[in-house]
Structures are given as structure tokens and as C-alpha cells.
Amino acid sequence: MSNSKIKRRLKIKRRVAGAIQVSADRPRLVVFRSNSEIYAQIVDVTNKTICASSSLEKDITGSKDTMTVKASIVGKRIAEKAKSMGIEKVVFDRNGFLYHGRIKSLAEGAREGGLVF
């Protein structure tokens, strides 16, 4: 991967991080996308992970779905875990990635699962 791509994403990440307002009742839903997998975790104000989900979970890995469909499943799964822990509202942190494709699919899956952001 080229160094300029990484620098560009980190620049966007810093800009987005300044706009995010995290509080005790609205933790962050952080997304990371690699070339082959997608990860989502809910992080509180003290940067402690509350719950997490990824496309590496056994039932998702075994399926022959596309990456976009897997991202939607991960979004629904993180929403289920958050709702079971009493979290209804979150702040979406796209982590410098463009809101398109797998990131958008994960966000829509989380919204379908019941998270509000």
C-alpha cells in the first residue's frame, strides 16, 4: 500500500475525530476496514472496548457472501451486542474511511439492528 494513501486516511481521521462528540451515554462505534475483513467495536469515553464484532467470526467467515453483505451482517451483530448491553445511541466513527461501500453497508446494518446515530 502506498504511503500517500495511509497519510491521506490519517489526515481525514484527524479531521473527523475533531468533529466527534463522545459522551458517557453516546459511545463511539469505530470501524476498521482492511482489504479482506471489516471490524467494528464500541468504545467508551475512556477508550475501553465495550463490545466488538468482525467478519472473522466463525459463522460469517464460512459464508460465501460478498464483502458488502458480510459488512451488513457485522453491523447487525454489533447492534445486537450493544442493545443487549443497554446501548441505544452511538456516535459513528468511520476512522478516516470514506462513507461508501462496506463502511456504508455496516452503518446501515447497525441502523437496521436498532442503533441510533
What does this structure look like?
The chain is an alpha+beta fold and 117 residues long. The chain has a single domain, classed as Nucleotidyltransferase, domain 5 (2-Layer Sandwich). 44% of the residues lie in helices and 18% in strands. The chain has helices spanning 3-19, 58-61, 67-84, 102-113, and strands spanning 28-33, 38-43, 49-54, 91-93. Strands 3-2-1-4 form a 4-stranded mixed beta sheet. Strand 1 (28-33) and strand 2 form a beta hairpin. Helix 3 packs parallel to helix 4 (102-113). The protein is globular and about 35 Å long.
Brief overview:
The chain is 44% helix and 18% strand. It is of the alpha+beta class and 117 residues long.
Question: What is the 3D form?
Answer: globular
| CATH second-level architecture | 2-Layer Sandwich
The helix-strand sequence is HEEEHHEH
Annotated CATH topology: Nucleotidyltransferase, domain 5
Oligomerization status of the protein chains: single chain
Question: Strand tally, please?
Answer: 4
Low-confidence stretches: none
Sheet of most strands: 4 strands, mixed
Structural class by secondary-structure content: alpha+beta
Distance between the termini: 32 Å
Tell me the β content: 15-25%
